[in-house]
Specification:
The protein has 156 residues and is an alpha+beta fold. It has a single domain, classed as Beta-Lactamase (2-Layer Sandwich), CATH 3.30.450.20. It is built from 5 helices and 6 strands. Strand 3 and strand 4 form a beta hairpin. The longest helix has 19 residues. It starts with 7 loop residues before the first helix and ends with a strand.
């Protein structure tokens, strides 16, 4: 997928919130931050690990996924950004997912998450050692949640 379908200004602004919030909660950088915010947004989109996020709606909708996320969940940008994030997990795994998100919301972030997710075509994969964090704006107000992981394995 090319980023042509992605609104560049929105992606740059949201990428900065993702990166700033990750640093705020974990004390680490998600990636080496060099260059302009636009360059950082492009690096995050092309990163060799998954980054995905959703907003704060009652039934949160995915609002960002880098290329690894789009490939893993087998979605276009338009499909991803119209998908409720709960649909990234099968029904029997949604309670566990909800507990982890609640823990992250309360503490700012949650590390070491492990769980099964499902792609848009029904392929199941095990996520290992994921970190989930609250995405906050410049005033510290929560505007979403994000997750990142570099390890996953397809499962039957």
């Amino acid at each position: 997928m090319s980023t042509d379908a992605v609104p560049h200004h929105c992606m740059t602004t949201w990428s900065q919130l993702l990166l700033d919030s990750f640093r705020r909660w974990t004390g680490r950088d998600l990636l080496i931050r060099t260059g302009t915010p636009e360059v950082q947004a492009e690096a995050l989109f092309a990163a060799p690990f998954v980054v995905v996020s959703h907003g704060t709606e009652a039934d949160p909708i995915l609002n960002y996924g880098n290329q690894r996320a789009l490939d893993l969940w087998e979605l276009s940008w338009a499909q991803l950004t119209s998908t409720p994030s709960r649909l990234t997990a099968e029904p029997m795994n949604r309670d566990e997912r909800a507990r982890m998100l609640a823990a992250a919301e309360k503490q700012g972030y949650y590390s070491g998450y492990r769980g099964i997710r499902i792609s848009s075509t029904g392929k199941r994969f095990l996520v290992e050692d994921a970190t989930v964090w609250n995405v906050v704006d410049g005033q510290g107000i929560r505007v979403g949640q994000a997750a990142t992981f570099a390890r996953w394995a397809m499962v039957e």
